[in-house]
From TrEMBL:
Residues 105-176 form the Signal transduction histidine kinase subgroup 2 dimerisation and phosphoacceptor domain. Keywords: ATP-binding, Kinase, Membrane, Nucleotide-binding, Phosphoprotein, Transferase, Transmembrane, Transmembrane helix. SUPFAM superfamilies: ATPase domain of HSP90 chaperone/DNA topoisomerase II/histidine kinase (SSF55874). This is histidine kinase. Gene3D superfamilies: Histidine kinase-like ATPase, C-terminal domain. Its EC number is 2.7.13.3. Pfam families: HisKA_2. GO terms for molecular function: ATP binding; protein histidine kinase activity. It catalyses: ATP + protein L-histidine = ADP + protein N-phospho-L-histidine. The chain crosses the membrane at residues 62-82.
Length: 288
């Protein structure tokens, strides 16, 4: 901005100097032409011609003053406008930095609170004697961890409105590594790269968490091969979701878990559940 102003000022003064030089040069030449005329011309024309010359000079000077005044006022207005824009830009930059700091601080506190909730639930699990109560707390802990993961993804990325679904769900999967190894369950995810908004990601994350918990808890018989698969891909702005387990306990039964039904409603997705070869949930979701 400073370089532009200096350049403009130099160009302005060069033009002004050239205009002034040209006008006075023209006037001097004009005067010399008349003064160099033969004396007989002046004697024949008894009235002096200097009046006409003076009028021409005055007109040129007035025109020059008008031009200079116009350029000066234009230049001053330009300086004022640029200075005003510079002040506004600085204010906007300060506001943006303040907002970024506040958002960062809020995210940091929310993340700390979610970690504290997880610690409290984990502590409660250790104190519970009943296996049923432990399972209830573990389900709750898994859901809190799912929300905490989503928040961490939003907090750590520049884009605060969309989530890499593949990366997010793969991290949710790691939360079940310990229990899947303990119960000898194979969990396989095949997820295409999809960027979706944070609200949709949260509901899908909670849905996947609830489905895995239900499969681990209710689907499998003790001595069977235990497999869980999740396939997600997108075609022409349609998200295709398919979750299946091969649990023998579910075969041929009517199963409609309430929370899973509610999460599908939140996703505005018409889902289908089959139990011919285990539990399987399928739906399509419009991304736009």
């Amino acid at each position: 901005m400073k370089v532009f102003l200096k350049t403009f000022l130099i160009i302005f003064y060069v033009i002004l100097f050239l205009n002034t030089t040209y006008v006075f040069s023209s006037n001097n030449k004009f005067l010399e032409t008349f003064h160099s005329k033969d004396d007989s011309f002046f004697q024949e024309n008894k009235q002096p011609i200097s009046k006409q010359t003076i009028n021409e000079i005055k007109k040129s000077q007035i025109l020059l003053v008008i031009i200079i005044t116009f350029f000066v006022f234009g230049f001053l207005f330009l300086i004022y406008h640029l200075k005003k824009v510079s002040i506004i830009n600085k204010q906007l930059k300060n506001y943006a930095q303040e907002n970024e700091f506040l958002i960062s601080e809020t995210n940091h506190r929310v993340n700390n609170n979610l970690q504290l909730i997880s610690l409290l639930i984990s502590d409660a699990v250790k104190k519970k004697q009943s296996e049923e109560h432990k399972n209830d707390f573990l389900k709750l802990l898994s859901k809190v961890d799912t929300i905490a993961l989503l928040h961490r993804h939003l907090y750590q990325t520049k884009n605060k409105t969309s989530i890499n679904l593949k990366k997010y769900l793969e991290e949710i999967k790691t939360n079940f590594d310990e229990i899947s190894e303990e119960k000898k369950i194979t969990i396989d995810f095949e997820i295409s790269f999809v960027e979706i908004n944070s609200d949709t990601a949260m509901y899908i994350g909670l849905l996947v968490t609830e489905l895995i918990i239900n499969s681990v808890k209710h689907a499998f018989e003790e001595n069977q091969e235990k497999n869980i698969s999740l396939t997600i891909d997108s075609k022409e702005d349609i998200l295709n979701f398919k979750y299946c387990d091969n649990g023998k306990k579910a075969i041929g039964k009517f199963i409609e878990p309430k929370l899973i039904h509610q999460l599908c409603l939140q996703l505005d997705a018409v889902h289908q559940i089959t139990t011919t070869q285990g539990f399987c949930l399928i739906f399509e979701k419009k991304l736009i």
